[in-house]
Amino acid sequence: MLNWMHAQGLPVPRPVAAHVHRSGPIYRADLILQQINKANDLHHILCASPLEASQWQNVGKTIARMHQAQIYHHDLNIHNLMQDEEGKIWLIDFDRCYKRHGTDWQPQNLARLKRSLEKESARTSPYYYQPDDFTCLLQGYHQQLNGNPHDKAAN
């Protein structure tokens, strides 16, 4: 699936190699991915400085692109979102993710990310996250879903 997402131009690391070892009903899988150069997860970025409204909107647009492709990220949290030095947002950690039909699951997926932000904000100091930041994220998310032509090139 990661190969397919990369081929679709989604912001995910490019898979390089994979190995699966099965032993009865148990398996172990190893995956080698191309490194995202000069990128940090958003959690670590938020420990040091706030994101601008436009950056939060880009996070929302990136998630919307995944949702438009029907990709369900089982563990959508602030640690699995990366930003590179050019400001591009990437998603990582797709080990239990899959394609999912419909749209009913998408609000719960976003709510999971919001809980992650609130949890980290409550336990980490300093942490540069405010509830208005999630509002900006949702603005970018809905702009992407609604096809605003000025916003498609953001990622």
TrEMBL record:
GO terms for molecular function: ATP binding; protein kinase activity. The lineage of its organism: Bacteria, Pseudomonadati, Pseudomonadota, Gammaproteobacteria, Alteromonadales. Residues 1-155 form the Protein kinase domain. PROSITE patterns: PROTEIN_KINASE_DOM. This is Protein kinase domain-containing protein. Signal peptide: none annotated. It comes from Bowmanella pacifica. Coiled coil: none annotated.
